[in-house]
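Following up on my earlier thread - several people asked me to post the actual chain instead of describing it. Fair enough. Here it is, all 276 residues.
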Amino acid sequence: MAEIPPRTYPQGVTCWIDTEQPDPWAASRFYGELLGWTFENVMPPDDPAVYLIARLDGSDVAAIGSGSGTPTWNTYIAVTDVDSAVAEITAAGGSVLNAPADAGPGGRTATCADPQGAKFRLWQVYRRLGAQTVNVPGSWNFSDLRTTDRGAATRFYTRVFGWKYVDYGESVEWMISVPGYGDHLAATADPDIYVRQVDAPPGFADVIGAIEGVTGDEQPNWHVKISVADRDSSVELAQKLGATVLSTEETPWVALARIRDPQGAELTLSEFRPQQ
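Reply from S.P.:
Thanks for posting it. Predicted structure:
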């Protein structure tokens, strides 16, 4: 049997998530118990900061880093050249919050915001390819853009990353599509994707997330969803570990719970419930 190559991410595909926390070690205990993650600090031993690579069954899935600001989850978008992408983001009306810089031997990154203020990060691969396990319990499912102006957001991201948008008529308005991504997966890390998704809507293999409207006083943001085997038992465990449940929701395909972790970062737990 041929060995399946590592998962790689073409230009414009969301590729990695991490969270910055005042106490990253405490955060690692929370997420380790909740999701079954183990961790490795990849910062030099004499560096006071830490960057804990989270692994599920030995496979990279996310990271927890040191941070002094408001705890949050960050979403990274793959690009072939960070510096060129930053120039295009600026020309399209976005902003650059942290200029391009190498993140050690792993890659090159920059922190940006779209015209509505939703922050995201760019990732140009050197050694770290991105999340290697996704869409299974305990791993990253999607990152969704929550915005105050979906029309303006779609124009911005289409110009910068070439995204397309699909309306499947479910609970969200638009799904984000990167044309050709499904074919890339089928030819590399996920050769069975089209067999597994035979009952999925047309083009679903190219989908990387969704665009949703924000409500109340929520500011535009990129919101992370993590897959779990059972939403209700995961919520119960999260509460025992100190998290706060903000909302729950059921759609035709998933059971969701939006939570705030013990240090304040928000994310959604998502249980896939296939239609009968």
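The mean pLDDT is 94. That should answer part of your original question.
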